[in-house]
Amino acid sequence: MRTQVAIVGGGPAGLMLARLLELRDIESVVIERRDREYVQQRVRAGVLEQATMDLMDEVGLGGRMHAEGLVHEGVELRFDGEGHRIALSELTDGRAITIYGQQEVVKDLIEARLESGLPLLFDVSDVEVDPSAPRVTFTHRGESHVLDCDVIAGCDGFHGVCRPAIADVLTVYEREYPFGWLGILAHCAPSSEELVYAHHRRGFALASMRSHEITRMYLQCEPDEDASEWSDDAIWDELDRRFGMQVNRGEVFEKGVTPMRSFVVEPMQHQRLFLAGDAAHIVPPTGAKGLNTAMADVYLLAHAIEDSYRGDSSGLDAYSARALERVWRVQHFSWWMTSMLHRFAGDDDFQMKIQQSQLLYTARSTAQATALAENYVGMPFRAR
Ligand code: APR
Ligand code: PHB
Fold this sequence. Notes:
By secondary structure, the protein is an alpha+beta fold. 37% of the residues lie in helices and 28% in strands. The strands form 4 sheets. Strands 6-5-14-15-16-13-17-20 form an 8-stranded mixed β-sheet. Strand 14 and strand 15 form a beta hairpin. Bound molecules: adenosine-5-diphosphoribose and P-hydroxybenzoic acid. The site of P-hydroxybenzoic acid has 10 residues, from strand 15.
């Protein structure tokens, strides 16, 4: 088998890259380890930056996002018993975020791919990549395949095979946080129209949503917390305490713990293998950046691949350096939000006051609020 671009991983990064290449008449084969159902049901983040919304439109798949997504022009910071709104759109010349689940983005991309009749293979196993050949081998429906190509896109997430295949040439930058997030999805109306990021002595809490009928909430917890040990009532009571109000309650239909980590490898490429998305970097979810950063990577990579077929390989050569500039901006923002909003073990009252002062300054100073807003709605995607 031969193709131009072999895409390992059918998450948001791999699927969006495939779509961008399709629109440039560049062939690709996407191979995904899981089945379609699993990939579409996996519960992940739900905030699309302005540039991700624009990209969904650019690739012709913004329809359902506009119909079902919720556009938000602000977020709330809640601390010391009071809420403070950050007017995202006012502070960023009208840019906004849209609440639309990652799995909805994935559904839209999968449907488009299958409708175009282009190769997207689920349930593959034994995936191995040879970055110098370049070549990908795998098993699908009991048969082994060899896929020769010009470029391998490593879009196989944090636990994939692409990053380990070039581990020898990579430098790892990493930080683990001594806490996790206990997240729930529940059948009830959100308690606030906009997202609420709450700082509290007992720990961080976040109020988000998926629709007008589905609430998404998170509580800072121990990193190895067992979600099943939390009764629904205990979760709601703790949310009430941390938000300092009675939140709407409803049937909890999903409960899980998310670990918190910052992680980057450099460089994001070696020979003919290019890493994108979670395969190359992870952020703690406090800035809602994971999905959006994956999209920024593949936007840049698609343009670089396109240029290379036109005889200019400078974009591919510079891919890692260019992608990493934005990756580190996002890393800093996510780390900053995380540090400002969470309680760390051993934090004393001095630290509590310092965090509250930082939050108050962010809420009151136009300069600082603008810094939060422009990072939150997201830096523009770079094509070259
Ligand atoms: N071969 C093929 N596919 C693989 C392999 C493999 N060896 N290993 C992993 N995969 C698949 C996973 O099953 C998954 O569907 O690669 C896909 C990677 O998708 P994501 O983990 O969603 O990563 P990415 O596409 O980079 O998107 C980043 O995901 O973790 C969230 O918050 C993060 O929203 C962000 C987004
Ligand atoms: C979510 O809705 O899942 C969500 C929202 C904002 C975040 C993280 C997750 O910062």
